[in-house]
Amino acid sequence: MNCQNCRTMAEEGCSLCETCEMRFAGTLLRLARDVTPLHDSLDATLHPGGHSPVRIQTATPPTPIRLDVLDLIDMLDATARELWRRLDGIDALDWRKDKRNEDLKATLIACAGHPKLATFADAGFYMHVVDGIARKVDTALDPPEQRREIGTCELCETMLTAGANDQWVTCPVCGREQRAQTVKLRRLKTLCWDDSKRGSAADIAKAFAEAGIKVSRKTITMWGQRGKIPRHADGYAYCDVYRLLIGPADLTVMA
Q1: Per-residue b/e over 125-137, b at no fewer than 16 CB within 10 Å?
Q2: What DSSP character marks residue 42?
Q3: Gap between the Cα atoms of 245 and 242, Å rounded
Q4: Is the torsion defined by CA of 77, 80, 81, 83 positive or negative?
Q5: Scanning 157, 187, 192, 215, which has the fewest C-beta atoms within 10 Å of its C-beta?
């Protein structure tokens, strides 16, 4: 039987493979952790994001609460309770059997540890819904100044931005959802394919680090001093650094 999320082989009677089950449970636990900062960020006089919000002074009186965050909490609450009922096999209309837990955080934790998380029929669908809510929560909690450009959309070439902890990004133009790490690697691949793309040792080290490849500014500078990579008037070439880091392998390995 194929996993409903990634289409790889799953164990008999399972809707999700082991990897996707762990990811699903991890997302539920992360959302449980975010319940408190979400409630804190309802206050419109607090900084509009971050896990440690600070009170700000506004030129005009703010709305008492952030309605967008309130809607997000309601969505998370409804989804968590619906998921719990599905896991326990409770008919939503049978209120006598619905052991309603008023604590949203506890409900999310209970769902993450439920023995049927990977085996109930619509596990893949609920995983997709929960992932979507998690991305919205990340956007609500990440301060706007912490979001930075990571690369362009694969379909429409729109520049995408993401917070430090975002795993997925959604293109604001075409609506395509893409893994943030893939977008970063695609951007780095473009830089490394073009030998005219150059930058300082610090800029190159940062670009590689954002794509998950570790190299320090001092290492790149040392390679230049030792003649391993040429130093141009406008800096070092990304492709020269890549060849030293990865070796003679084809750049297509980054795709």
Answers
A1: ebbeebbebbbbb
A2: T
A3: 5
A4: positive
A5: 157
